[in-house]
Amino acid sequence: MRLPSYALIAFAVLAAGGGQAQVYPAKPVRLVVPYPPGGPNDVIGRIVATRMTQVLGQQWIVDNRPGRGGVIGHELVTRTPPDGYTLVHGGMGSLTLAPFLGKVPYDPVRDFAPVVMTGRVPNAIVVHPSLPARSVKELVALARARPGQLDYATSGVGSTPHLAAALFLSLARVNLVHIPYKGSAPAVVDVVAGQVPIAFLPVSPLLPHIEAGKLRALGVSSAQRSGLLATLPTVSESGLAGFEMNPWFGVLAPAGTPAAVIARLNGEIARYLATPEAVKQLAVQGADAAAGSTEEFIAVIKSDLAKWGKVIQENGIKGE
Fold this sequence. Notes:
The chain is an alpha/beta fold. It has two domains: 27-120 and 247-314, Bordetella uptake gene, domain 1 (D-Maltodextrin-Binding Protein, domain 2); 123-229, 3-Layer(aba) Sandwich (D-Maltodextrin-Binding Protein, domain 2). The chain contains eleven helices and eleven strands. Strand 1 (29-33), helix 2 (40-56) and strand 2 form a beta-alpha-beta unit. The radius of gyration is 22 Å and the shape is globular.
């Protein structure tokens, strides 16, 4: 006869536990952006922060902490309490490339709890219109006919475009000369001017020049075609099977952050990134909206560490 009373008590306990789990966030959340204001990581981070402020009812404060290619901001977050109130809008370069290019003060797997991927910013292979190559296959053929005679620009040594180029050279078995720049902007200027005939660079700064006919796009580096250049084939489908470099950004917490907090953040952010509004906002920044589960994000990080560590070592690439 007393079973209903016990059942009610059990229900009350479960309900109370669920209510406590939903208390987060009870105060403002700091989102560390480890890069300067204005870049795609910063802008995407701010888009997410604005939406989460509205959805979760607590202010999300963006805190730019640039330095050492994002390393300083990532390290800062590993030294904060794992309570979900300090997060980082991390990037592929700082987490899966930097550890192989020099010493970093964190372990990309041990020291972080990945929450959700937010966006991918693919690279593209472009050439100056004066170069007689209208496809990836034609570029490979030209490079083989002129080994060591053609230059290519990237946004710097150890950057994601540089790694994309290294993978390209390895798979295509060609020899091009690397001309590293300090960022994408100066590289684009020289390629548009014809000073350097080839470039591996993020799609976003290239788009206006591609659309104006000042640069010829040959292929996009992602595994699937980018919504930003829907008619442009991928490098892989253009004959270089297995080629993929699709730089990502994502939200991470310090290791040890409660699973319930991670799950709440993943659900809310992923839900927003699936909306047409988010897709449009990220597209303006030259990014494809991502999302997915926490487990998928973890798998990407581990896969990239294995893949790009090998490429970096095989090509003898050293950080600056």
